[in-house]
Amino acid sequence: MAETGHPASPPRFEILAISGSLRRASINSAVLRAAAQAAARDGLRVALADSVRSLPPFDPDRDTEPPASARRFRKACEDAAGVLLAVPEYTFGIPGAFKNALDWAVGSGSLYLKPITVLKVSPPGRGACVREGLSLALEAHGADVVHRSVPVSRHDLDMHGEVDDARIVAELRTVVAELAERARTAAAA
Ligand SMILES: Cc1cc2nc3c(=O)[nH]c(=O)nc-3n(C[C@H](O)[C@H](O)[C@H](O)COP(=O)(O)O)c2cc1C
Fold this sequence. Notes:
With 189 residues, the protein is α/β, with parallel strands linked by helices. The protein is built from five helices and five strands, in the order E-H-E-H-E-H-E-H-E-H.
């Protein structure tokens, strides 16, 4: 309770979900939408980031006075209690647009100590390189990272491109609940 007698506003608690794919029919983006819906049943808010597409190429000369889109992206990362990432592998690495977003965030320290779950949706035996790339990049950010795997193929999507499999949705719900618990622990520390 604040000294004025007014109740203090509750702390903001939101998971930010960022897809590494700009593709309209992206499996990674569909998985994050499904995770957001599933988590809502536990009262958890998962906001889907839409700013990766609008970020200009990272330029260190603009790092101290970044463009509005980069400021918004940094703030969204800062405000989030935790971050959920689903990033496809491109040419044995991180897709350029997503790496660009990470580069905009490093100077601000927006992901420092941030609880992050990297969700791999590619089938077993695929995606090892992007996992390795993300591990290294997020280590440079000083983020607190765990990796989880929930394989999803295009056959698990319905005709509207949404995840249509109760087992997958249940697994996504567990992944977000675990991230939220880590975020709560981090906030309390
Ligand atoms: C330009 C490009 C490069 C790719 N390179 C790889 C790769 O190196 N390794 C791999 O396992 N998949 C690779 N893929 C396949 C994607 O990871 C896969 O299609 C993934 O599902 C795309 O994610 P999305 O559906 O969320 O867009 C590549 C796809 C594209 C478009």
